[in-house]
Specification:
This protein has about 230 residues and is of the alpha/beta class. The chain has a single domain (about 15-230), classed as Glycerol-3-phosphate (1)-acyltransferase (3-Layer(aba) Sandwich), CATH 3.40.1130. About 45% of the residues lie in helices and about 20% in strands. It has helices at about 15-35, 45-50, 70-75, 90-100, 115-125, 145-155, 205-230; strands spanning about 40-45, 60-65, 80-85, 105, 130-135, 160-165, 170, 180, 185-190. The chain has a 7-stranded mixed beta sheet, with helices on both faces. The protein has a two-stranded antiparallel sheet with strand order 7-8. α1 (about 15-35) crosses α4 and α5 (about 115-125) crosses α6 (about 145-155). The longest helix has 28 residues, at about 205-230.
Length: about 230
């Protein structure tokens, strides 16, 4: 597919391949079952909805890695191209996303900052769909923005749309991202926050010192709005 980025498949034993396939199948099945029970409210308009209303817009959705369970559900029918790490743990996420109908771009922020930024920028330029990125992935630290998404937004002119989440009752895993998985019949809110436009001539220092904090503030504002929607405050 035009705009899709791939990476070599890691060598896996039969046992490892079976494990990855079994976990991804179980996760995608559980995802569908649980999401059918969720009472989710959506605030703000997605880029897909805005295009349907006549706007000429394309964006990069930004979400925290720990919120993937719910953002996958929110964006699964939006024709989004998801950037997923090529390391072994990322393969499970990639297979879940593929089963959910997402298109994938495979890369990794673990291969070095400069390479990751160039990879992400190339995908953003070549793809025709909106992109979705876990901005603190694939291995954290949690809620710390990686510069790749900022560089890609700067060099392509695509706005970043912060995606906020709040869930009233959820399990939280013991992984580095304390992943949020809503319990059955939970109430949740997804918020598409205000666009963030990163200047095309922003330096790396400016990306880190000015625009990374700006994106965190945008994420916090979207999350606060989602929390207020769920808690009625």
């Amino acid at each position: 597919m035009r705009g899709e980025m791939s990476a070599p498949e890691p060598d896996r034993s039969f046992a490892e391949e079976f494990r990855v396939e079994a976990i991804s199948l179980a996760a995608s099945t559980l995802h569908r079952i649980l999401h059918a029970t969720y009472r989710t409210r959506t605030l703000g308009s997605s880029c897909l909805q805005r295009r349907a209303a006549g706007e000429d817009v394309r964006c990069i959705y930004a979400g925290w890695h720990g919120n993937l369970w719910h953002t996958i559900g929110a964006l699964r029918h939006h024709g989004v191209l998801a950037l997923v790490s090529s390391h072994r743990d990322g393969e499970i996420i990639a297979r879940v996303l593929r089963r959910m109908g997402f298109r994938l771009a495979r890369g990794s922020s673990t291969r070095g900052g400069a390479r990751a930024m160039l990879d992400m920028t190339r995908v953003a330029r070549e793809a025709t769909a909106d992109l979705a990125v876990a901005i603190d992935g694939p291995r954290g630290p949690a809620r710390e923005v990686k510069e790749g998404v900022l560089y890609a937004a700067s060099r392509t002119g695509l706005p970043i749309v912060p995606v906020g989440l709040w869930v009233d009752r959820a399990w939280r895993t013991k992984s580095w991202d304390t992943h949020v998985i809503g319990k059955p019949l939970c109430r949740a809110a997804i918020v598409y926050g205000a666009e963030i436009h990163v200047p095309g001539d922003a330096t790396r220092a400016q990306l880190l010192e000015v625009w990374a904090p700006a994106l965190v503030r945008g994420m916090d504002a979207a999350e606060a709005r989602a929390r207020a929607a769920v808690e009625g405050t």
